[in-house]
TrEMBL record:
Residues annotated as domain DNA mismatch repair protein S5: 178-302
GO-annotated cellular components: MutLalpha complex
Name the record gives this protein: DNA mismatch repair protein S5 domain-containing protein
Predominant cellular place of this UniProt entry's protein: nucleus
InterPro entries, per the entry: DNA_mismatch_repair_CS, DNA_mismatch_S5_2-like, HATPase_C_sf, Mlh1_C, MutL/Mlh/PMS, MutL/Mlh/Pms-like, Ribosomal_Su5_D2-typ_SF, Ribsml_uS5_D2-typ_fold_subgr
Pfam families found in the cross-reference section: DNA_mis_repair, Mlh1_C
UniProt entry keywords in alphabetical sequence: DNA damage, DNA repair, Nucleus
Keyword tRNA-binding: no
GO molecular function terms attached to this record: ATP binding; ATP hydrolysis activity; ATP-dependent DNA damage sensor activity; mismatched DNA binding
Amino acid sequence: MALIQRLPQEVVNRIAAGEVIVRPANAVKDDGCGIPYDSLPILCERFTTSKLQKFEDLRAMETFGFRGEALSSLSQVSKVFVRTKIQSEPLGVSASYIDGKLQEQSQCAALDGTIIDARQLFYNNSTRLLAFKNVAEETSKVVEVVQRFAILHPSVRFNLNHGKSLSTKGNGDRKAVIATLLGPEYAKDMVPLELSSAKLHYKLDALASNPISLVTAQSNPGKKKYFVLYVNNRIVHSDYFKRAIDTVFADANMAYLFLYMDLQIEPFCIDVNVHSSKERVEFLNGDAIIDEVKEALRTRILRSTATQDTSNNLSQTVIRNFTVSLVEKGPPSPSPSASETSLVASPLTTRPENHLRTDYRQQRLDHFRLEQLESQPTQLIEATDHVSRLQDPIIFQEDDALSNRLAEQQLVLVGAIDCEHVLMHDAANRLVLLDFVTLTQELFYDIYIFGFGHLGSYEIQSPLDVRRLLSASSNDIDIDETIEFFKAHECIMRRYFSVEFLVEEENLLLSKIPSLLDGYCPQLERIPEFLSDLLSIQFTEDGFDIGDAARSTAKFFTLKKEFCEDGKINTLLGAAAQFESFADVIRLLLLPRMKKQLIPPSHWAYDGAAPSPFRWVTSNSDIYKVFERC
C-alpha cells in the first residue's frame, strides 16, 4: 500500500475546479462595475473574495458568489483573459491568468465594468473535453442561463451571439421578454400571482401561462414546459419545489407551459452555503412556504379555468347528442338469453371483513373551510449551537415508516373519545387508539425547537394579575420570589418564550402568551401551571436550557381533559371560537398539522406495543369473526 501523502496544491485546485465548472454554462458571468486594480494579482486565486469577510456574513449574503472559487476554478481549466475598468479611472486594465496566477497585465481602452473571456475550456483535461463534443447541446445550456437571467431582469438588456442571436430590449416588460425568448404562445393570457408572509419572512412574485387541459398537453409532447425558480435573485433548481407545483396542476387535471417564480426570503432565513454551484439552497420554514404557494396556485387555477369549463361543457353536450343519434340509427342489439346470462362470470369481490370502508384518500368538506388566524410574529432570534444539538437527534432518530404513514394520511379519524384519546382507522382495516397527549406534546416540542426564536404570540386584551394566577397553581412555590424571577428575566421571556409582562402600580400583569400554531389557542386554565413550570427551567449566566423550555411550552399547549366539559373547550381568550368542540380542534387543526410536521421518534414503532402512542384495538376481520358483519 502506498504511503499517505498530502496532495500538491495544484492538484487540489484542479479537482475543486472540476466540481465548480462542470460545463461551459457554469462559466457565464455578469459584467459588474469593475475590479479595483490593486486586486488583480489575486483575482483568480482560490478563496479570494470581496463578498465575505467573516463566517457570520453568510447570514446576510445576497450576492451570487461569495467563496472565491468561481474565477479560480475557471482559470484552472481554461485560459482566462480579463478586461476591467472602474468609473474613477480613465483607462482600463487587461490581464491574463493560468492556473490562478497572473500572467500579464497592461492598460487598455475599456468601458466601465468587467469582461471575462475564457478560452480553450478544459484544454488540460482531455477526458472532460471529449465529453463535450456536442456543441449544440452545450450552447443550449448557455442560452438557458442567459434566458433565465433575462426573464428575471427584464430591465437589463441581454445580448448573446451564437449563430442565432438572442437579444432583449431591457424595457422592463417581462411578458415581452418571455415572448421574445420562448415564443408568443408562452406569454399569452398569463396569470400573475403575488404572495407574502411577515411571519415566514418571504415574498413571492409569480407568473404562469394560462393553464391548459392535461389531455391537451399530453397530446402535444413536443411542446417544452418551462419552470423557472429564483431564490433571492439566484437561479435555483429544486426538484422538491417543482414536484409540489406539478402536483397542484395534476390534481386539477391541468398543465402549464411556463411558470416563473421569484422567491425573496430574508437573508438570515436562508443557507446558501449548501452546494458549490449555489444551485441548491436551504431555507427556514420551507414546507410551510410551499404549502402556502400550493394553496394560492389552486385558487388561481380554479379562477383562471372557470371560463373554460363553460365552453368545454357545451362541446361535450354536442358530442353526447351526436353519439346518441348514431346509436338510435343502428340495428338493435340482441338481448342475451337466460342461458347466456347464467354463463356470464360475476366480477371478483372483496370479502366483507376485508372491505375498506373508510378510504384515507377521501376528505371531508370542512377541511377546506378552516379560517386562518394570524398570530403576531416576534423578532427572529439566531439559532444557537444548543438548538442545533436538540434538532439533530429529532431528525436522525425519526421513524421513516411511521412518518410516511402520517404524511400519506393513511389514518382516518373515527372519533375523539375525549381530548386525550382518539380513535382512528388505518389502511390495514385496524382500529387504532391514539394517546393524543403524547402526540401533541411531541408535535409542539418539535414546533418549538425548529421554530426557536420566531414564535408568535397572543395578546391578552385584559392582562391577568400574575400573583392571582400563581396563587391558583397547584405547585408549592414562593409567589414573591417567582414574581421577582419573572421581572429579572423579563427580556428573555419576551424574546425567547413570547411571554410578556406589564408592571402597573407594582403589580405584575401577564399581557402575552406564546402561539405555536395559527388558529390554536391553549387552554388558559393552564396558565398558572405553565408559569410555575417556567421556574423549573435551568437558567445560568450563559442562558437557559432550551429543551426544558420546549417541554414546558409543549405541555401548556396540550389539551387537558379536566378543562374540556361536555365536548367544549373552556377558553378565556376566544381565539378558538371558530371551533365548536375539542373534536373540531383535533380533526381540523391538530391532526392535519401532525401529518405534516410531527417527526415521530424511532421508539414509536407502529406495532401497537408500549411506549408507542399508537395502540391497536381491533380489526375488521376480528370483529367479523364475532358478529359476522362489519
